[in-house]
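Hi there. Long-time user, first ticket. I'm pasting a complex I've been working with (about 235 residues overall). I'd like to know whether the download I got is complete or cut off, because the file seemed smaller than I expected. Thanks.
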Amino acid sequence: EVQLVQSGAEVKRPGESLKISCTGSGYNFARYWIGWVRQEPGKGLQWMGIIDPADSNTRYSQSFQGQVTLSVDKSTNTAYLQWSSLKASDTALYYCAKVRFEAGLAGSPFDLWGRGTLVIVSS
Amino acid sequence: DIAVTQSPESLAVSLGERAAINCKTSRSVLHRSSNNNYLGWYQQKPGQPPKLLISWASTRESGVPDRFSGSGSGTDFTLTISSLQAEDVAVYYCQQYYSPPWTFGQGTRVEI
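Hi, the file is complete. Here it is re-exported in full:
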Protein backbone atom coordinates (compact mmCIF):
# COMPACT_ATOMS: atom_id res chain seq x y z
CA GLU A 1 0.00 0.00 0.00
CA VAL A 2 1.26 3.43 -0.93
CA GLN A 3 1.27 5.56 2.21
CA LEU A 4 2.96 8.18 4.33
CA VAL A 5 2.98 7.43 8.04
CA GLN A 6 3.58 10.34 10.38
CA SER A 7 4.77 10.26 13.99
CA GLY A 8 2.37 10.76 16.87
CA ALA A 9 1.07 13.87 18.56
CA GLU A 10 3.44 15.94 20.66
CA VAL A 11 2.92 18.28 23.61
CA LYS A 12 5.86 20.57 24.25
CA ARG A 13 6.81 23.64 26.26
CA PRO A 14 7.89 26.90 24.59
CA GLY A 15 11.62 26.87 23.91
CA GLU A 16 11.85 23.10 23.56
CA SER A 17 13.09 21.36 20.43
CA LEU A 18 11.16 18.85 18.37
CA LYS A 19 11.62 16.60 15.34
CA ILE A 20 8.62 14.90 13.73
CA SER A 21 8.81 12.25 11.06
CA CYS A 22 7.10 11.03 7.91
CA THR A 23 7.89 7.57 6.53
CA GLY A 24 6.96 6.61 3.00
CA SER A 25 6.22 3.11 1.74
CA GLY A 26 4.82 1.40 -1.34
CA TYR A 27 6.57 3.66 -3.86
CA ASN A 28 10.07 4.81 -4.83
CA PHE A 29 10.61 7.32 -2.02
CA ALA A 30 13.70 8.91 -3.59
CA ARG A 31 11.91 9.89 -6.81
CA TYR A 32 9.27 12.23 -5.38
CA TRP A 33 9.81 15.37 -3.37
CA ILE A 34 8.15 15.56 0.05
CA GLY A 35 6.45 18.74 1.19
CA TRP A 36 5.25 19.93 4.59
CA VAL A 37 2.00 21.79 5.13
CA ARG A 38 0.79 23.49 8.32
CA GLN A 39 -2.84 23.73 9.36
CA GLU A 40 -3.57 25.79 12.45
CA PRO A 41 -6.72 24.84 14.39
CA GLY A 42 -9.77 25.71 12.31
CA LYS A 43 -7.66 27.39 9.63
CA GLY A 44 -6.45 26.77 6.10
CA LEU A 45 -3.38 25.14 4.57
CA GLN A 46 0.06 26.79 4.58
CA TRP A 47 2.86 25.47 2.38
CA MET A 48 6.02 25.37 4.51
CA GLY A 49 8.67 23.87 2.29
CA ILE A 50 9.74 20.92 0.26
CA ILE A 51 12.69 18.51 0.14
CA ASP A 52 14.15 16.23 -2.51
CA PRO A 53 14.77 12.84 -0.88
CA ALA A 54 17.42 12.05 -3.52
CA ASP A 55 19.85 14.80 -2.53
CA SER A 56 18.22 16.72 0.37
CA ASN A 57 17.81 19.83 -1.77
CA THR A 58 15.28 22.03 0.01
CA ARG A 59 13.11 25.05 -0.67
CA TYR A 60 11.37 26.92 2.12
CA SER A 61 8.55 29.39 2.16
CA GLN A 62 9.92 32.71 3.40
CA SER A 63 7.37 32.54 6.20
CA PHE A 64 9.09 29.45 7.58
CA GLN A 65 12.70 29.99 6.49
CA GLY A 66 14.91 29.96 9.57
CA GLN A 67 12.04 28.76 11.77
CA VAL A 68 12.11 25.08 10.82
CA THR A 69 14.51 22.61 9.20
CA LEU A 70 13.63 19.91 6.71
CA SER A 71 15.77 16.80 6.39
CA VAL A 72 15.54 13.30 5.03
CA ASP A 73 17.05 9.86 5.64
CA LYS A 74 17.00 7.94 2.37
CA SER A 75 18.03 4.71 4.08
CA THR A 76 14.77 4.62 6.05
CA ASN A 77 12.52 6.47 3.55
CA THR A 78 11.84 9.07 6.22
CA ALA A 79 11.49 12.83 6.03
CA TYR A 80 11.73 15.08 9.06
CA LEU A 81 10.52 18.48 10.17
CA GLN A 82 12.27 20.00 13.14
CA TRP A 83 12.24 23.03 15.39
CA SER A 84 15.09 24.16 17.63
CA SER A 85 12.96 26.39 19.84
CA LEU A 86 9.19 26.02 19.75
CA LYS A 87 6.74 28.87 20.25
CA ALA A 88 3.09 28.75 21.23
CA SER A 89 2.30 29.95 17.71
CA ASP A 90 3.73 26.67 16.34
CA THR A 91 0.66 24.86 17.69
CA ALA A 92 -0.88 23.23 14.62
CA LEU A 93 -1.41 20.06 12.64
CA TYR A 94 1.53 19.33 10.34
CA TYR A 95 1.08 17.25 7.22
CA CYS A 96 3.72 15.71 5.02
CA ALA A 97 2.75 15.09 1.42
CA LYS A 98 4.27 13.54 -1.69
CA VAL A 99 4.35 15.39 -5.01
CA ARG A 100 2.23 13.94 -7.80
CA PHE A 101 4.84 14.35 -10.53
CA GLU A 102 8.59 13.83 -10.65
CA ALA A 103 8.95 17.48 -11.45
CA GLY A 104 11.04 18.69 -8.55
CA LEU A 105 10.72 22.44 -8.22
CA ALA A 106 9.17 22.61 -11.69
CA GLY A 107 5.85 22.28 -9.90
CA SER A 108 3.47 19.58 -8.78
CA PRO A 109 0.42 19.20 -6.57
CA PHE A 110 0.46 16.73 -3.68
CA ASP A 111 -1.28 13.43 -4.33
CA LEU A 112 -0.45 11.47 -1.17
CA TRP A 113 -0.79 12.89 2.32
CA GLY A 114 0.04 11.63 5.78
CA ARG A 115 -2.63 11.79 8.50
CA GLY A 116 -0.86 14.71 10.14
CA THR A 117 1.06 15.22 13.38
CA LEU A 118 -0.57 17.46 15.96
CA VAL A 119 1.94 19.66 17.77
CA ILE A 120 0.76 21.52 20.86
CA VAL A 121 3.08 24.07 22.43
CA SER A 122 1.92 25.30 25.80
CA SER A 123 3.45 26.38 29.06
CA ASP B 1 4.99 34.97 -3.84
CA ILE B 2 1.84 34.28 -5.86
CA ALA B 3 -1.25 35.08 -3.80
CA VAL B 4 -4.27 32.82 -4.21
CA THR B 5 -7.75 34.07 -3.36
CA GLN B 6 -10.86 31.92 -3.25
CA SER B 7 -14.50 32.97 -3.26
CA PRO B 8 -16.91 32.59 -1.67
CA GLU B 9 -15.68 31.70 1.83
CA SER B 10 -18.67 29.42 2.27
CA LEU B 11 -21.46 28.12 0.12
CA ALA B 12 -24.75 26.38 0.92
CA VAL B 13 -26.23 24.35 -1.92
CA SER B 14 -29.24 22.04 -2.08
CA LEU B 15 -28.69 18.37 -2.82
CA GLY B 16 -28.53 17.81 -6.57
CA GLU B 17 -27.82 21.45 -7.30
CA ARG B 18 -24.67 22.97 -8.77
CA ALA B 19 -21.86 24.45 -6.68
CA ALA B 20 -19.14 26.68 -8.09
CA ILE B 21 -15.98 27.84 -6.31
CA ASN B 22 -13.73 30.52 -7.73
CA CYS B 23 -9.97 30.82 -7.41
CA LYS B 24 -7.90 33.77 -8.52
CA THR B 25 -4.09 33.97 -8.60
CA SER B 26 -2.14 37.23 -8.41
CA ARG B 27 -0.05 36.23 -11.44
CA SER B 28 -0.67 33.91 -14.34
CA VAL B 29 0.07 30.27 -13.60
CA LEU B 30 -0.09 29.30 -17.27
CA HIS B 31 3.23 27.82 -18.37
CA ARG B 32 3.50 29.02 -21.95
CA SER B 33 5.81 26.32 -23.28
CA SER B 34 3.62 23.45 -22.05
CA ASN B 35 0.30 25.32 -22.18
CA ASN B 36 -0.48 23.90 -18.75
CA ASN B 37 -2.04 25.81 -15.88
CA TYR B 38 -0.18 24.96 -12.69
CA LEU B 39 -3.24 24.83 -10.48
CA GLY B 40 -4.81 22.06 -8.40
CA TRP B 41 -7.96 21.55 -6.36
CA TYR B 42 -8.27 19.63 -3.10
CA GLN B 43 -11.13 18.43 -0.93
CA GLN B 44 -10.72 18.22 2.84
CA LYS B 45 -13.33 16.52 4.99
CA PRO B 46 -13.34 16.92 8.80
CA GLY B 47 -10.58 14.97 10.50
CA GLN B 48 -8.96 13.97 7.20
CA PRO B 49 -6.00 15.19 5.18
CA PRO B 50 -6.68 16.98 1.91
CA LYS B 51 -7.40 14.86 -1.15
CA LEU B 52 -6.23 15.92 -4.61
CA LEU B 53 -9.21 16.15 -6.95
CA ILE B 54 -7.86 18.00 -9.97
CA SER B 55 -4.44 18.91 -11.35
CA TRP B 56 -3.45 21.13 -14.28
CA ALA B 57 -6.63 23.12 -13.59
CA SER B 58 -8.93 20.60 -15.29
CA THR B 59 -7.53 17.05 -15.12
CA ARG B 60 -9.46 14.86 -12.69
CA GLU B 61 -7.47 12.41 -10.61
CA SER B 62 -8.27 8.73 -10.95
CA GLY B 63 -11.39 7.77 -9.01
CA VAL B 64 -12.74 11.31 -8.67
CA PRO B 65 -16.42 11.42 -9.67
CA ASP B 66 -17.12 13.20 -12.93
CA ARG B 67 -19.49 15.61 -11.20
CA PHE B 68 -16.29 17.46 -10.21
CA SER B 69 -14.80 19.59 -12.97
CA GLY B 70 -12.19 22.31 -13.17
CA SER B 71 -11.94 25.14 -15.64
CA GLY B 72 -10.14 28.40 -16.28
CA SER B 73 -6.76 29.62 -17.41
CA GLY B 74 -4.16 32.22 -16.54
CA THR B 75 -5.34 33.77 -13.29
CA ASP B 76 -9.01 32.77 -12.99
CA PHE B 77 -10.23 29.29 -12.23
CA THR B 78 -13.41 27.51 -11.14
CA LEU B 79 -14.20 24.20 -9.46
CA THR B 80 -17.71 23.06 -10.26
CA ILE B 81 -19.68 20.30 -8.59
CA SER B 82 -22.46 19.65 -11.07
CA SER B 83 -24.89 17.86 -8.74
CA LEU B 84 -24.03 18.16 -5.05
CA GLN B 85 -24.13 14.95 -3.03
CA ALA B 86 -24.16 14.65 0.76
CA GLU B 87 -20.63 13.25 0.73
CA ASP B 88 -19.32 16.40 -0.98
CA VAL B 89 -19.69 18.44 2.21
CA ALA B 90 -16.12 19.59 2.82
CA VAL B 91 -13.69 22.47 2.56
CA TYR B 92 -12.20 22.92 -0.90
CA TYR B 93 -8.80 24.48 -1.57
CA CYS B 94 -7.06 25.55 -4.73
CA GLN B 95 -3.27 25.61 -4.92
CA GLN B 96 -0.86 27.11 -7.43
CA TYR B 97 2.29 25.13 -8.06
CA TYR B 98 3.73 27.40 -10.74
CA SER B 99 6.26 29.05 -8.45
CA PRO B 100 7.41 28.17 -4.92
CA PRO B 101 6.05 28.66 -2.37
CA TRP B 102 3.17 26.66 -3.85
CA THR B 103 0.49 28.68 -2.12
CA PHE B 104 -3.02 27.57 -1.22
CA GLY B 105 -6.20 29.58 -1.27
CA GLN B 106 -7.90 30.18 2.06
CA GLY B 107 -10.54 27.50 1.45
CA THR B 108 -14.25 27.41 0.66
CA ARG B 109 -16.65 25.53 2.92
CA VAL B 110 -19.44 23.74 1.05
CA GLU B 111 -22.55 22.80 3.03
CA ILE B 112 -25.96 21.43 2.27
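A couple of notes from our side: The interface with chain A takes residues 1, 31, 38, 40, 42, 44, 49-52, 55, 61, 91, 93, 95, 97-107 of chain B (CB under 8 Å). Chain B has a mean pLDDT of 97.
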